[in-house]
Every structure is written in structure tokens, then in C-alpha cells.
Amino acid sequence: MQVFGWFGVRCIFRSPAEGDDWLYEERVTLWPAVDAESAIALAETEAEEYAGAIDAEYLGLAQAYTMADELGPGAEVYSLIRPSRLATSVYLTTYFDTGTERQTHTRQEQSSLDRRDLQE
Length: 120
Description:
Shape: globular
Low-confidence stretches: 111-116
Mean pLDDT: 85
Radius of gyration: 17 Å
Helix content: 25-40%
Number of strands: 3
Strand content: 25-35%
Strand order of the largest sheet: 2-1-3
């Protein structure tokens, strides 16, 4: 008997924008699968379909996250941890809040670490 778990899989897409710019999209989808490799295979099949539907290109990068939580409110569906020597404000600006994102809502509190980073 195969045991299924839930996996969040992040795929990256690129589509044309105005001028010479590209739009990059990070998209996380949920998949029931026996392992991360199977979840990625399912996600990549869907990613190709999604890319075709929105006139984008799937860039071939898929990262899987094994969900430890049960599906429901507040369940963690994806997590990525990376080491960095960047100051907090520089890290956030570099990877998450460049000012050019097309997003509905963000909330960023300025912590004491952020204030210290700005003084460096």
C-alpha cells in the first residue's frame, strides 16, 4: 500500500512584459504524491499547461516542500531557507520586495533589526 503525503511545489515562469523586460512568476501548487520526485513530475506537467494558457514559459525549476501539517487554515504549504550574510533590509529588498512586484498586498513591519541595518 502506497502512502501519500502532500507537497507544495514551487515552479518559476517567465512571460514578456513591456519593452525589453520579462515578468517572472513564482507559483506554488499542492500535490498529493508518494514522494517529492512524484510531486515535482505532477507539478511540471501542470506547469507546462499553465504556461501555455498564459503565454508564458516554464523555466524548468521546480522545488518541492514536504508538508508536515494537515491541510487546513494556517497549514504551511511551502518553505525555503537560504543562508545569507546580507543585512535584513538588503536581503528583503534583493529577494522579496524590489518595488517592481505585481502583488495584491504586502505587510512588512520595520523591526529593530531593520533599523540597525539602515544605520550600517
